[in-house]
Write a sequence for this structure.
């Protein structure tokens, strides 16, 4: 009886050793397939990076990282000249977009991918492998990394972080810092909320008053009561990005495999624009950029051809700056009383046989969708663009619509019964799921602790599997009303952004919150070294 018992003990110990080894691989987001080897690869001053024109920038970035982090200057070698002790990037046409295979053998490291995106993500994994999962000997001036094979691909193609700068302008350096951290976490979409009631942050050359007037406000609502606060800062706030700034930031993002999706709000959240040009509004009254947060004082008069031409002109300049195939038009929180109180709007609705304000909004939204399509682009908007009744301040009859949203539209789900999202998917619309209770970074940690953020699944629980491919990903949103400083923004974003990165990348069955928290310590050290003031552990799980 002793021998079978001993065999069982050895087998249990063997399994336990594999578990321990797996836990030692600390990478965020967690790779989807990991196969462990028994040997090791040594990176030293004789290690070469095999040069490829297609991967040149990625190779340079890796070489710079190894030099800065480990004080090792690796030389390059041409294809075929290095026989061992080298790092190489190769093309594998059989891999899907953004996928990669990283293999560490005893004589070389190979990163295979179909395209530059895959190479970029393979390089990011290699960096975490070297930084957090290898042994560096300063005395021997070498890095020892265990043999491993990682086969990896993202769960979702849309992995987004949104920054709202309409409320508080942050500037280029903070945006670049966020883009760097997104790239490190394999997030690929920077959703940039550039205009809203409280500020217009992008230069439009045809309409200079948008930034001369719309980018400035006299004061700002502050105080612990937040939305109900009567306290004002009594200090002006202003700022905007020139078109040259935008080009610089777009190029910076592209180098990190990040697409910037601009959001230009319409027809609501338009007070800053109307304050710049009063004829844009439904009331035609002169107003100022609001100094209080919340939904603004007026909305665009979308029945006026001059107004719709303005919006097309703005979109033309936006599309010149942003190569993104998707343009976000907002579409949320439109207070219909402005249209209901306008005789000219009511006359237009009768002429077009539009019975409700929601009919008018969908009709207008489809016209913008058609315009964007004519330019080779695609429209995205918050789920009110479907005519959803999400707000108690709206009359239920006003939100009934017989209009059908253009099928090419991407619906950005943020509020309402989850059945609204499943219905949209069943009707053929692509969905980005940003359910506010699980993804809004302006929420306090007691309402959205790290564990709740990590547990979010973009695919609704009861959605039929045949519609799962309609959910193309998720976004996490840093709304800016109550984040006047960079430090407050950092505190809200970090560490929760890492949880959303893993949701977007890692298959459901490979996620593990306990392992994630262990790996998170490495990111916290990284953030601290970069001057990012992340929320400490005792707060992120505070109930």
């Amino acid at each position: 009886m002793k021998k079978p018992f001993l065999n069982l003990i050895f087998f249990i110990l063997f399994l336990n050793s594999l578990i321990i080894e797996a836990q030692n691989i600390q990478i965020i987001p967690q790779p989807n397939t990991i196969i462990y080897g028994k040997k090791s690869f040594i990176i030293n001053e004789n290690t070469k990076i095999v040069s490829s024109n297609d991967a040149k920038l990625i190779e340079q970035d890796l070489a710079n990282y190894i030099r800065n982090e480990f004080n090792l200057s690796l030389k390059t070698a041409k294809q075929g000249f290095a026989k061992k002790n080298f790092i190489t990037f190769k093309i594998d046409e059989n891999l899907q977009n953004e996928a990669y295979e990283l293999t560490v053998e005893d004589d070389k490291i190979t990163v295979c991918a179909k395209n530059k995106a895959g190479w970029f993500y393979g390089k990011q994994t290699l960096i975490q492998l070297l930084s957090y999962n290898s042994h560096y000997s300063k005395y021997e001036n070498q890095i020892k990394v265990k043999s491993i094979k990682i086969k990896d691909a993202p769960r979702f193609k849309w992995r987004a972080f949104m920054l709202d700068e309409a409320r508080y302008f942050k500037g280029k350096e903070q945006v670049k810092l966020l883009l760097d951290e997104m790239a490190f976490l394999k997030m690929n979409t920077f959703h940039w909320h550039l205009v809203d009631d409280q500020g217009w942050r992008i230069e439009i050359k045809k309409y200079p008053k948008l930034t001369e007037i719309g980018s400035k406000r006299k004061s700002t609502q502050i105080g612990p009561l937040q939305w109900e606060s009567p306290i004002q800062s009594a200090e002006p706030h202003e700022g905007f990005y020139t078109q040259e700034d935008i080009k610089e930031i777009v190029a910076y993002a592209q180098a990190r495999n990040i697409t910037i999706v601009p959001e230009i709000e319409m027809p609501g959240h338009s007070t800053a624009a109307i304050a710049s040009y009063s004829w844009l509004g439904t009331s035609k009254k002169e107003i100022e950029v609001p100094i209080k947060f919340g939904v603004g004082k007026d909305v665009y008069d979308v029945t006026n051809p001059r107004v719709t031409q303005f919006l097309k002109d703005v979109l033309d300049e936006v599309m010149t700056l942003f190569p993104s195939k998707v343009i976000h038009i907002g579409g949320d929180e439109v207070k219909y009383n402005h249209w209901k109180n306008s005789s000219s709007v009511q006359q237009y609705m009768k002429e077009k046989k539009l019975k409700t304000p929601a009919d008018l909004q969908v009709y207008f939204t489809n016209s913008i969708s058609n315009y964007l399509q004519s330019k080779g682009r695609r429209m995205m908007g918050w789920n009110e663009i479907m005519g959803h009744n999400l707000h108690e301040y709206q009359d239920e009859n006003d939100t009934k619509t017989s209009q059908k949203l253009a099928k090419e539209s991407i619906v950005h789900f943020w509020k309402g019964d989850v059945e609204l999202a499943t219905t949209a998917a069943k009707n053929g619309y692509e969905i980005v799921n940003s359910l506010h209770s699980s993804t809004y970074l302006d929420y306090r940690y007691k309402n959205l602790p790290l564990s709740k953020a990590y547990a979010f699944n973009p695919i609704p629980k009861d959605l039929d599997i045949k519609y799962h491919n309609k959910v193309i990903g998720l976004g996490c949103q840093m709304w800016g009303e109550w984040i006047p400083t960079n430090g407050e923004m950092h505190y809200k974003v970090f560490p929760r952004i890492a949880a959303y990165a893993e949701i977007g990348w890692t298959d459901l069955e490979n996620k593990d919150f306990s392992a994630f928290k262990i790996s998170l310590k490495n990111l916290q050290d990284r953030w601290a070294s970069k001057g990012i003031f992340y929320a400490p552990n005792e707060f992120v799980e505070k109930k």
Q: What stands out?
A: The two ends are 52 Å apart (CA to CA). The CA atoms of residues 228 and 304 lie 35 Å apart. Residues 158-540 form a domain with the TIM Barrel fold (CATH 3.20.20.80). Residues 9-23 have pLDDT under 50 and may be disordered.
